[in-house]
Amino acid sequence: MPEGCVVDTSCLIVLDKVGLLSLLCEVYKVIYLPKSVVKEFGENLLPKCIRVIEVSSPLVRIFTDELNLGLGEAETIAYAYEQGMEAVIDDAKARKVAQKLSVKLTGTIGILIKAEKKGVIESSYQVVLKLKETGFRVSDDIVGKLKEK
Questions:
Q1: Which CATH superfamily is domain 4-121 in?
Q2: Which of 100, 67, 82, 66 is nearest to 34 (CA)?
Q3: What span, in angstroms and rounded, lies between the C-alpha atoms of 111 and 134?
Q4: Listing from the earlier edge strand, what are the strands of the sheet with 4-7?
Q5: How far is residue 104's CA from residue 91's CA, in Å, rounded to a whole number?
Q6: Shortest CA distance to 28 belongs to which of 132, 120, 144?
Q7: Contact between residue 6 and residue 104 where contact means Cβ atoms under 8 Å apart
Q8: Quick one: pLDDT band at residue 2, thresholds 50, 70, 90?
Q9: Within a 10 A sphere around the Cβ of 65, how many other Cβ atoms?
């Protein structure tokens, strides 16, 4: 089991919409959430494996002011970069910034695939179909690949 990762708000929201927020604790021992992510998402629903962190990196200002990322995305990337940790981000622009910094990345779908491999869920494909019903955007190509595996 990977030790931990830092998670942006979008993953929390979509997993919560389908009742699978606790899945994060099944895949990782510890989930780190920047305070800005907790502020966006709310702290009432957080699973027990969550550790709220204060991110005071100078990178945050660069990411928000110069690259126009949201505060949650900026703090997630900065913390992952500085701690050498995996980041869970779905936003394409934020993922590009993280990739340029060589931050190890996954997204909500990556979490679902890991959960399926561990036997926590039966089918990442079926969960993605539920996520699509809630407005989660995923390409038909990715959905097709999940169906085929």
A1: 5'-nuclease (3.40.50.1010)
A2: 82
A3: 18
A4: 50-53, 30-34, 4-7, 86-88, 105-106
A5: 15
A6: 120
A7: no
A8: low
A9: 10
88 Cα distance to chain centroid: 3
Q: Report if pTM > 0.85.
A: yes
Displacement of CA 129 from its chain's centroid (Å):
18
Candidates 87, 109, 111; CA nearest to 99 is 87
pLDDT tens per residue across span 57-67: 999 999 999 99
The type of residue at 20 is L
Least confident interval from 20-29, 40-49, 57-66, 93-102? 40-49
Tell me what pLDDT residue 39 has. 94
d(CA 85, CA 68): 23
Torsion of CA 35, 6, 136, 121, to 10 degrees: -130
Name, in order, each residue with C-beta under 8 angstroms of 61's C-beta and a sequence gap of 6 or more. Answer: none
Dihedral sign (CA 61, 67, 70, 74): negative
Tens-digit pLDDT profile for residues 49-59 = 999 999 999 99
